[in-house]
Amino acid sequence: MSQDDPITEIRRHLLSVQAIAALGAELRLRQEHREGDPMLRPRLQEAARAMHPALPDGLGPAQQEAMLAAIGYALSEAAALFADPAQPPGWRHQDPVLIDAIGRASRKIVHDLEAASADRPELRAALRREGGAFLDVGTGAAWLAIEAARVWPALRVVGIDIHEPALALARKNVTGVGLEARVELRWQDVTVLEDVEVFTLAWLPLPFLPEPVAVAALERIRAALVPGGWLALARYAAPAEHLPAALSGLRTVLSGGRPWTDTALEEALHQAGFSAVEHLPTTPVALTLAQL
Known about the structure:
Elements: H1 6-31, H2 40-51, H3 61-83, H4 96-105, H5 107-116, H6 121-127, E1 133-137, H7 143-151, E2 156-161, H8 164-176, E3 183-187, E4 199-205, H9 211-224, E5 225-236, H10 242-254, H11 262-271, E6 275-280, E7 285-291
Helix pairs in contact: 1-2, 1-3, 3-4, 5-7
């Protein structure tokens, strides 16, 4: 980054914002099967190719969907911050399209966990345990819960949330894919979770939880897991470069969470009774595994 000419650097980043918006617009037209304006459409595609020659045609359907969700979320978050820079932290999205898109993108996490189980026999056994159960904290639109039910057919899935607009969409999605018998949805605060020795694996998205909530959640989840059960936690990945790391911390605080360091998270997990803590090099969500 140029230290002598900040205006030039700002303008360069503004071009990046416009390029991302152009790519998102093109992907949205494709997803919605619309032609768009005949004069504008080629310009959107040209801007996308200028970012990388493989864009947008080099993205498969699943990649397009994931990128569209990520772009929509980032632009919405940025616009909300610019419109109200004094806003308090916390996740308050109401738009069902955005909530659904974020949920669809979260399905990758299930596949990251499945891939991690390939060389972790105890985790693999937990994911295939007959009569086992998976707890999805902050289930949102329930797409992560739905994907878990599909990938791990031995497990019953319970999704909990306290954001009613998301739960309404979750109920619709679970019914739409015919998984009502496998996926249970609850309006429930994780800090008052009363299940005891029920779940084989639990999922906890730390960026959306204030520190006291996260600490209380660890205690309740420990009680809710079976002996030897697993907990998977998420943080926004924090790259070594200054700007991406700064933005990762900003996103976490905006979402209502604490930017946990590896050391602080390990200490909190050990105090809650977890052991064998391991950080996985996954992106854009960094996963941590812990076992009782």
